[in-house]
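This part of the workshop introduces the protein records we will be handling. A record pairs a protein's sequence with a compact description of its fold. Backbone structure tokens are a discrete shorthand for how the chain folds in space. The question running through the whole workshop is how a given chain folds. The record below serves as our worked example for the rest of this section.
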Amino acid sequence: MARKKNRGFSQPMTSMSYIFNDDSDSTEKPIKAILRHASANTSLRQNDSTTLIFVKSGHATISVNAENYDLHRGVLMAISDYQAYRIIPAPGVTLEYVECQFDYLLYLFFMANPYFNFSPPGLGPCPVYAVVDSNHIETVVRLTDYLIISHSKGKHGEREVLQIMELFGFLIKCSDSENTYPLPPSEHRPRRQNK
């Protein structure tokens, strides 16, 4: 029996395999994941990629474009291209967090791919902020740990793309961006620290 053609649609990952390929000789890593520790204020960082931050332990404030948000265990947030951010740990506390960066092209792939039912999480004038619930926090820890190991080994293939996609799924599920997008920060400041 002849096999039916798929009417021009490729499988979800195949369409991006030419960019995210473990066999690539390129030194460019489209997914970077690093475990960081901050016990003092970090320098102001001008973001030039999409950044996911997941807090493993400690307490701090993150200032994103002059808006302050609480950081504590379970916080998962996305900071879009060209937003500036700085982390200010609580006095005497070391914040342990995973900083995961990837190209905006990968974010667009998540949002536009018809195989995944992601709605826009509002990457625009303010970051997307979520607190992962206790039922899912260990899964997020494992995902970020895996990405850190993959980055250290130079892997950036389809499996790593799926891990990032799963983190984005938790971000969208646990945030209230579906209800607030695209309101600007002055009209809605999700879980903002009171100052």
About this structure: The CA atoms of residues 34 and 99 lie 5 Å apart. The beta strands are 31-38, 45-46, 50-57, 60-64, 67-71, 75-79, 84-89, 95-102, 128-131. The chain has a mean pLDDT of 77. The two ends are 68 Å apart (CA to CA).
